[in-house]
Design a protein that fits this description.
Structural class: mainly alpha
Shape: elongated
Distance between the termini: 56 Å
Largest sheet: 2 strands, antiparallel
């Protein structure tokens, strides 16, 4: 292929990456839209992920939308690892930062084969761990990583910066931006710092190593790489080659098709075609014979070791005393499956957090144990479960949060409110306060008032309307804790007492 055609292919790939990146953020915005239920296609990228097809196979019954992931698998057998180079939105960001690094240093160092190996070992370990009740694939899967980072860090941070910039400008411009661009309220997340540091560190590493995450850490890229070894499309050098090795200058993995060509790592980016001065690289289809399938040497011992580490990572939390304890200090979203099955299915993508309109759902740190890192927990002091909303039950791609109608969600009990009488104004101080009762959304009122004669802290007796909770009516939405007027800490707290969990087969 001549240089001009190579540059056209390169521009087409850049356009494709840009469009898929825009599509990703468009779908992410649809998760948090104003409609009562987000459209089913808002989870398109999750359904195209073969690793989540594996999660769907572990679920019972099979989650049929994940059958869409067979399409990129079949295309990979035909075209090679095209998805990483042309369609992956996180790959587009890594490609952009790699380009920045190359512009700054003219040429990034080639990626040694040792740096290509870890992603395959990670894939083996993560798949082994997923056989147990710990789903660690979501920690590093590109779609989970990007959705979680965008929902908890990029979009809230961008909204705050944009708000500051608009406030510094003319008032009409601010009003226009507030209506068109800014969210109604500024969202914040408890683990935003840790998630953001990890995300931006992975991006900045591209300034030192070409597509560092894609080459060394991405488990989805490893899966596509294993299949790409057997693909029909390949690059090959023709007789016009002058052995200048110019094709290695922009290669995303190691050195281009002139020497040490690896089909498993080639992203079909077209950089080598655009850089070759002699039109010495052909794009051809050929039967994948053994000589045409060079690969990264993994070794059986390394693979067995990686699988063993994955099994150990899954087994250690199971032996923890906290796993056996019935009480737990966290609330799950309405529709959450039984904890064991929830941890098996949850991919830590953050889609439910993006969909929650009140910012109540937060990524867990260690409230649910180490295996529950970044799984969603409901934190009433950050927000509350809106009574007329069931968005989180509609967006979970793996059904770790079961689909509930609005009527079913209104009846779903995620916990019970308990009054701390040492703090509540109506008990501790003898004052009338009905804020929690007024905000209780349950039609029958799970929080009520009763008139009681009390002795105040001044020693006087007076009639006070004390609040109390009707446990059978309380659904644990947390609005009472969220609106409690005490400034030190809420006098009413919602715990997981009498919580309801969805049966996986239900």
């Amino acid at each position: 292929m001549d240089r001009k055609s190579g540059r056209r292919l390169q521009r087409l790939r850049i356009l494709s990456q840009f469009l898929f990146l825009v599509l990703f953020f468009f779908l992410l915005a649809r998760l948090a839209g104003g409609a009562a239920a987000p459209p089913a296609w808002a989870g398109l990228f999750f359904y195209l992920d073969p690793l989540f097809l594996w999660v769907g196979l572990l679920a019972s019954p099979l989650l049929r939308p994940f059958l869409l992931a067979l399409l990129p698998l079949l295309l990979t057998l035909l075209l090679g690892r095209f998805f990483c180079g042309w369609a992956c939105p996180l790959g587009a960001l890594h490609q952009f930062f790699t380009w920045l690094g190359a512009r700054r240093r003219r040429r990034l160092p080639a990626v040694a084969r040792a740096w290509l190996r870890p992603k395959y070992l990670l894939l083996a370990g993560l798949l082994a761990a997923s056989l147990f009740t710990v789903q660690l694939l979501g920690w590093l899967d590109p779609f989970s990583l990007l959705t979680r980072s965008a929902a908890t860090v990029v979009l809230p941070g961008g909204n705050a910066l944009l708000q500051q910039a608009l406030q510094a400008g003319p008032r009409p411009l601010y009003e226009l931006g507030r209506r068109a661009l800014l969210t109604v309220s500024q969202r914040s997340f408890l683990q935003a710092a840790g998630i953001g540091i990890l995300f931006f560190a992975l991006l900045l590493l591209n300034l030192r190593r070409r597509r560092f995450f894609c080459n060394s850490l991405c488990p989805l890229g490893a899966l596509y790489g294993l299949l790409a070894k057997f693909s029909f499309l390949r690059l090959r050098i023709n007789d016009a080659c002058v052995k200048c090795n110019a094709c290695a200058g922009g290669c995303t993995y190691q050195g281009g098709p002139y020497q040490d060509y690896l089909k498993s790592e080639c992203l079909l980016c077209g950089n080598c075609l655009a850089d070759c001065p002699a039109a010495a690289i052909d794009v051809a289809f050929a039967w994948p014979g053994r000589r045409q399938r060079p690969a990264v040497d993994l070794g059986r011992r390394r693979l067995l070791g990686a699988a063993g580490v994955g099994l150990a990572a899954a087994a250690l939390p199971l032996a923890s005393p906290s796993r056996q304890a019935v009480p737990h200090p966290f609330l799950r979203p309405p529709g959450a499956l039984e904890e064991k099955e929830f941890l098996r299915r949850c991919i830590r993508c953050g889609a439910c957090m993006q969909a929650c309109p009140t910012n109540a759902l937060q990524p867990a740190l260690f409230q649910a144990g180490a295996e529950g890192l970044w799984t969603p927990v409901l934190v009433p002091q950050s927000g509350y479960c809106e009574y007329e909303c069931h968005r989180c039950t509609q967006v979970c791609p793996t059904r770790a949060i079961a689909r509930l109608s609005l009527g079913e969600k209104k009846q779903f009990k995620i916990g019970t409110a308990v009054i701390d009488r040492s703090l509540c104004y109506t008990y501790a101080d003898g004052y009338n306060c009905a804020v929690c009762e007024e905000h209780c959304p349950v039609p029958e009122k799970a929080i009520r008032l009763r008139e009681v004669e009390v002795e105040t802290f001044r020693g006087r007796r007076r009639l006070v309307k004390q609040v109390y909770v009707v446990p059978d009516l309380c659904i644990g939405c947390g609005i009472c804790e969220s609106v409690c007027p005490r400034s030190d800490r809420p006098a009413i707290r919602v715990g997981a007492e009498e919580e309801q969990r969805q049966n996986p087969a239900g």
